[in-house]
Write a structure and sequence with these properties.
The complex is a heterodimer. Chain A is mostly beta strands. Chain A is built from 2 helices and 11 strands, in the order ααβββββββββββ. In chain A, a hairpin with a 5-residue loop joins β1 and β2. Classes of the chains: A mainly beta, B mainly beta.
């Protein structure tokens, strides 16, 4: 019962999002974070269906989808628009399909595509970085965000 | 945060739909125990931009998730091969590993079943013993398990060795196999994977059953190693005239061939044979494998006394033969 209530509570958060954006309208650009968990259910006929929930509780192995909504509430375009999301320590990065992303595996000091990054081993040698090494993800927009424009960024993670 | 504002009717609908996945969601488990139960995951993003007034940074709201306890237990028989036992043997240990693959501290009950089927006999389990940490069964040093009294409490990723001690029934044939199943059961509960126990998790969150459903079992096996002996007796007669007639004065040579079979050993195998009535034992005539034996009760294998020939063969493995001869004269 507790669990059901927590889901209902979390989903109600989503319905209240415009209010959050309003509250932050003092800033020209507002950004809002949502986390959902991807759960696959199988009905009595054996058909499986993947659903996104917005829970407050998860278990190791749960697949998370992080959704960031942004909006330029100002009257002027926002240039040099960069969104940064440090990954919670208990979450392993599981990829993104967004354009203009780069990641860091060293706490935000160096950035690049995952394939170009390396991790220094204890013995001084380097190895290619893996998704679970990612500490930060960043979106750097090439074009200004026009006034009134909103958008959505997404990436995936897995509870370690 | 401004979040309790959902209309009552909308919340009712959400409750109805959320009930669908509570009972069907199957958590997937990573290899290791994973993030400790009770850990709070917080996510905050930030945006920097310039809309004419210089670079500005804003933070998003913070999402907070709590990691629930995932109950995941593994029981694994860890002897490298069937444990060799003998009919009637007691306190023969089978070795199991019990591992908490979940992410929270969990208490487990242990139980055995020996009527598992698919084997030749049912070992009689006498004790479950929890190892003191060295992986070797040491009577008196390892701890005897008492259900409900010293149920093992395992941290995430912690593994303990559990010994199951059994008595092997008598009268079993060589090569008979007997199995015992050890089950470890979470004290929080069992059920279909995905079942949630509200408030029962470490740190006060929920406890969710993983793929093991809150309990796990494995079978361990004994194999009986025994041996049998059969004895063939023959006699040859030499009469005083060089013939084979049984007349007074004829000498009878008795030959006993003891043949052992099976994969086990026959400890302290002793062959005895009484001298037939109407004959007299020929002193010093016992041989074992062609080697003469003294009649005295001394270091060698043979002796004679009270009209009985006794040969002590010691421990004899299966698949061997021992040949004994002795002589008697017809009165």
């Amino acid at each position: 019962m507790k669990r059901m209530i927590s889901i209902a509570f979390a989903l109600s958060l989503a319905s209240a999002l415009p209010g959050v954006a309003q509250a932050q309208s003092a800033n020209a650009v507002a950004i809002d974070s949502n986390v959902m968990v991807e759960r696959t259910t199988t009905d009595t006929a054996g058909r499986s269906q993947t659903m996104l929930e917005e829970p407050r509780v998860v278990v190791p192995g749960d697949k998370l989808v992080f959704v960031l909504n942004y909006r330029n509430n100002g009257v002027r375009p926002a240039t040099d628009f960069v969104v940064t999301n440090p990954l919670p320590q208990a979450v392993a990065f599981d990829g993104t399909s967004d354009a203009d992303t780069s990641v860091s595996v060293d706490g935000g000091r160096n950035w690049g595509q995952l394939a170009t990054l390396t991790i220094r081993n204890a013995d001084g040698t380097n190895r290619p970085a893996r998704a679970e090494d990612v500490t930060h993800i960043r979106w750097a927009f090439q074009q200004p965000i026009p006034a009134g424009r909103a958008g959505r960024l997404m990436f995936r993670g897995v509870v370690r | 945060m401004t979040s309790f504002s959902a209309p009552f009717s909308a919340r009712q609908t959400l409750l109805a739909t959320s009930a669908l996945f509570v009972f069907t969601a199957l958590p997937t488990i990573a290899h290791a125990a994973g993030t400790r139960a009770g850990t709070v995951i917080s996510n905050t993003a930030s945006a920097t931009f310039d809309n004419g007034g210089g670079s500005t940074t804003v933070n998003s709201n913070t999402n907070t998730l709590t990691v629930d306890e995932l109950i995941e237990i593994d029981v694994d028989w860890s002897d490298t091969a069937d444990v060799v036992t003998t009919p009637g043997a007691t306190s023969q240990p089978l070795k199991f590993q019990v591992t908490n693959n979940g992410n929270g501290v969990e208490t487990y009950g242990l139980a055995t079943v020996s009527t598992i089927g698919g084997d030749n006999y049912d070992p009689s389990v006498t004790q479950i013993v929890i190892d003191d940490g060295d992986g070797i069964y040491e009577p008196g040093q390892d701890i005897i398990y008492v259900p409900g009294s010293n149920d093992p409490v395992l941290n995430p990723d912690q593994s303990i060795t559990v010994f199951v001690l059994s008595t092997t029934p008598g009268g079993l044939a060589d090569g008979d196999r007997g199995g015992v199943q050890l089950t470890a059961t979470s004290k929080t509960g069992t059920g279909a994977p995905g079942t949630s126990f509200a408030g029962a998790g470490e740190g006060g969150g929920n406890a969710v059953l993983g793929t093991s459903g809150g309990d796990d079992s494995d079978n361990g096996f004994y194999i009986v190693s025994s041996a049998n002996v059969s004895i063939a007796k023959s006699a040859s007669v030499l009469d005083p005239f060089g013939g084979t007639g049984v007349v007074p004065g004829s000498t009878v040579t008795y030959t006993l061939v003891a043949t052992t079979t099976g994969s086990g050993n026959l400890p302290n195998l002793v062959i005895t044979d009484a001298i037939p009535t109407g004959t007299t034992y020929v002193a010093g005539s016992i041989t074992l494998g062609g080697t003469a034996q003294s009649d005295a009760n001394d270091a060698d294998a043979g002796r004679f006394g009270s009209g009985i020939v006794t040969v002590n063969l010691g421990t004899v493995a299966g698949g061997q033969t021992r040949t004994i001869t002795f002589k008697a004269t017809v009165n």
